[in-house]
Amino acid sequence: MKRIFIAVSVALMLIPLLIGCNGNHKSAYEQITPAEAKALMDSEEGYIILDVRTPEEFAEGHIEGAILIPDYEIGEKAESILTDKAQLILVYCRSGRRSKNAANELAALGYTNIKEFGGINDWKYGTVTE
């Protein structure tokens, strides 16, 4: 009986530690709104706007000044194009799914200042075409 009590007590003490490791997980990038992204673009310098859609989507219209690295090429191209891992990178796609995946991948590569703002579908501040 004493052994069972000790085992249960130890297990109960470990639960908060396990929850703390998993429950407080913070995303490696910050999700912001398109309005917040626009405000950063208007007030900051030296940032990169990263479009992670396909080349065809990019050609149809993109945010002025954006560079294109399709989400499926982040792993192979990011480090040669995005050389400063502390630089502010504003990431978007069409609807937000690919940009979240790309932001996670960038974080896994060691980038530390990533702001993901969803999709161009919600962008109300104008686009340009090639």
Question: What labels would you give this structure?
Answer:
5 helices; 130 residues; alpha/beta; 45% helix
Query: How many DSSP-defined strands?
Result: 5
What characterizes the major β-sheet?
5 strands, parallel
Strand content: 5-15%
Q: Helical amount among residues, as a percent range?
A: 40-55%
Largest sheet, spatial ordering of strands: 1-5-4-2-3
What sequence of helices (H) and strands (E) makes up the elements? HEHEHEHEHE
| Mean residue pLDDT | 88
Report Rg.
Answer: 20 Å
Stretches where pLDDT falls below 50 for ≥5 residues? 14-25
Distance between the termini: 76 Å
* Envelope shape: elongated
Number of helices: 5
Structural class: alpha/beta
Give a nutshell description of this structure:
By secondary structure, the chain is an alpha/beta fold.
Walk me through what this model shows.
- By secondary structure, this protein is α/β, with parallel strands linked by helices.
- It contains five helices and five strands; from the N terminus they run αβαβαβαβαβ.
- The chain has helices at residues 2-23, 34-43, 55-60, 74-81, 97-108, and strands spanning 30-31, 48-51, 67-68, 89-93, 114-119.
- A five-stranded parallel beta sheet has the order 1-5-4-2-3, with helices on both faces.
- The longest helix has 22 residues, at 2-23.
- The chain is elongated, with a radius of gyration of 20 Å.
- The chain starts with a helix and ends in an 11-residue tail after the last strand.
- Residues 14-25 have low confidence and may be disordered.
Walk me through the topology.
Layout lengths: L1 H22 L6 E2 L2 H10 L4 E4 L3 H6 L6 E2 L5 H8 L7 E5 L3 H12 L5 E6 L11
Parallel strand pairs: 1-5, 2-3, 2-4, 4-5
